[in-house]
Write a structure and sequence with these properties.
Elements: H1 2-15, E1 20-26, E2 31-37, E3 40-47, E4 70-72, E5 79-80, H2 90-98, H3 103-119, E6 124-125, E7 130-136, E8 142-148, E9 174-178, H4 183-186, H5 191-196, H6 205-220, E10 226-236, H7 238-246, E11 258-262, E12 271-272, H8 282-292, H9 301-307, H10 310-315, H11 323-327, E13 332-333, H12 342-347, E14 356-361, H13 369-372, H14 375-381, H15 387-395, H16 405-414, H17 418-444, E15 449-454, H18 473-477, H19 488-507, E16 523-527, E17 531-535, H20 539-552
Parallel strand pairs: 2-4, 5-6, 8-9, 8-10, 10-11, 11-14, 12-13, 14-15, 15-16
Antiparallel strand pairs: 1-2, 2-3, 3-7, 7-9, 16-17
């Protein structure tokens, strides 16, 4: 009894005890009921497809069967299967130290990380195709923002606390967050799967989940007071990449009307289904992964693969074991869902005519490079004198060509050691250059496009990461991480960014003082210690990266 009271106490602290039942909503498949809090309705854990299990593993999501009665949607559905034992706390250490936490905050975070396997209450399941809707009570014909979470296409869920926020609903916008299949369950391609498919393709199951969720929104969101003809998709990192790739998918056309890519465009590293580039084709990666489980040949291949427990199959998604396998789990240019290489789609007028925001953070690579190339490995891998040329070849993800002179000058002018320079360049190559390229090519096509640059670092003298990857998320959602320092300006900046995103969702224009990106002016909205609209200081380097990507496009 005492234990239950303690549990109730903490539930009340974090979730509140004043929630009441929401109105009953009639969807196409049945009735649901969530809860209401402060005049905001929360519908969490709505199934939008049948569980992709057993014979439905590695198939397009199937329509959800209708249910009887009223489905209670008070809790986010299980997260999709993902690696839970990656063998180290390197990333936790990096973030806690790099974001400037003091010694006792550091100690507390590491304590939680150590016990996280015990304390973690997250449910993981192959049955994970659920979404969440957060809307003003008694909403009518409101714009919809559809969030696609990041996590390298291997981690995360739409039900994470940072995303379940009322900040959009309080500004008369309905928020939808989704789950989609991850890692080897979301992007696995194999000749046997392609043969089984009526379209002759495999992979892209995670993308098909996103499209299925968008179709659900089109069919059902009006029941929540949303406008199915005013849907904005937005996402960060792998989610931003998903947004960029959906812009070129013919089967996603008409399902959304505006788009925002935060630190991800889909341009670097196009993967082909069957043809080799500099990397293994998607099907060859699949053959290699199947072999890790002793599955090869032509006899009962799919039956044997589908019999492997999801928990075992997904745990192989560990870069320590095989980096090539991990890099192979992302969107596939298959000729059907994605007919074009993504950089070619942007170059050749093959993206949908919808207003688009794309952008990146100033120091994306500072939290990513140590995960890809720990310093000791970097120093062994790359020679002191020729490190830039060697690093350029490896990190260009299938592209070919020498390092542009502007990039060489940029790196030299950084005035830091090779490892720090590599960290900065990695982020610029993966996120900055592609964002610039996407903005420029869409401008050339006459499509409304806006570029942003996030340059607000944690206001702590101890922080070392700068405006690193994903740091804009707390500002966009108005949900700051515990212990991380912030000032009154950070609260104000968050309000400005939320307002810009919401205005864009409502009207297609983020802000009157934010001009469209043009090839001649190259103006970006800069969110930093102040807010301004101007050309980036290093625009010559980003233009050089744009030209480099342009040369790779067909």
């Amino acid at each position: 009894m005492k234990k239950n009271l303690v549990l109730l106490f903490f539930i009340c602290i974090f979730y509140g005890c004043s929630n009441s039942q929401s109105s009953i909503i009639s969807t196409e498949k049945g009735k649901i009921q969530g809860y209401e809090k402060n005049n905001i309705d929360y519908f969490l854990g709505i199934p939008f497809a049948e569980p992709p299990i057993q014979n439905l593993r590695w198939k397009a999501p199937q329509d959800k069967a209708a249910w009887k009665g009223v489905l209670q949607t008070n809790k986010a559905g299980p997260a999709c299967m993902q690696p839970t034992d990656i063998g180290n706390t390197q990333f936790i250490d990096l973030l806690s130290e790099g974001l400037g936490l003091n010694w006792y905050e550091n100690l507390f975070v590491k304590f939680l990380a150590f016990f996280s396997p015990i304390l973690d209450t997250t449910e993981y399941s192959e049955d994970c195709l659920y979404l969440n809707v957060i809307s003003p009570h008694k909403a009518q014909n409101l714009p919809v923002m559809f969030w696609i979470h990041g996590g390298a296409s291997r981690f995360g869920s739409g039900g994470e606390d940072v995303y379940i926020t009322s900040n959009f609903a309080e500004r008369d916008v309905i928020l939808v967050t989704i789950n989609y299949r991850l890692g080897s369950l979301g992007w696995f391609a194999h000749p046997a799967l392609s043969k089984e498919s009526p379209n002759g393709v495999s992979g892209n199951y995670g993308s098909l989940d996103m499209i299925a969720a968008l179709k659900w929104v089109k069919e059902n969101i009006s029941a929540f007071g949303g406008n199915p003809n005013n849907v904005t998709i937005f996402g960060e990192s792998a989610g931003g990449t998903a947004v960029g790739t959906l812009l070129s998918s013919p089967i996603a056309e008409g399902l959304f009307h505006k788009a925002i890519s935060q630190s991800g465009s889909g341009i670097p590293g196009p993967r082909m289904l069957t043809l080799d580039s500099n990397n293994l084709s998607a099907e060859k990666v699949g053959i290699k992964l199947a072999a890790e489980f002793g599955v090869s040949g032509d006899v009962n291949v799919l039956e044997r693969l589908r019999a492997i427990p999801a928990e075992d199959f997904i745990q192989l998604d560990d870069p320590i074991k095989d980096a090539e396998l991990i890099s192979g789990f992302a969107q596939v240019v298959d000729g059907f869902i994605f007919p074009y290489k993504f950089h070619s789609a942007f170059k050749n007028k093959k993206t949908h005519d919808v207003p688009y925001i794309t952008g990146f953070n100033a120091n994306e690579g500072t939290s990513l490079t140590p995960l890809i190339f720990p310093k000791e490995i970097f120093e062994k891998q790359f020679g002191e004198d020729a490190w830039l040329e060697e690093f350029w070849v490896i990190m260009n993800l299938g592209f070919n060509g020498a390092v542009p002179d502007e990039v060489i000058s940029y790196v030299e002018d950084l005035g830091v050691d090779n490892y720090e320079a590599a960290s900065q360049l990695l982020g610029d190559m993966l996120f900055g250059g592609p964002a610039y390229f996407a903005a420029q090519k869409r401008n050339d096509d006459g499509l409304d496009t806006y570029l942003y640059f996030f340059n607000r670092a944690v206001p702590s003298e101890r922080q070392t990461l700068g405006a690193t990857h994903a740091l804009e998320i707390p500002y966009i959602f108005g949900a700051f991480f515990p212990f991380v320092e912030r000032t009154e300006w950070d609260e104000t900046l968050s309000e400005i960014m939320i307002s810009d995103w919401v205005n864009f969702a409502k009207t297609g224009l983020p802000n009157q003082n934010w001009p469209k990106f043009t090839s001649s002016e190259q103006i970006a909205k800069i969110y930093g210690d102040s807010v301004s609209s101007q050309k980036l200081e290093a625009f010559e380097m980003f233009q050089a990266l744009t030209n480099f990507i342009d040369q790779q496009a067909e």
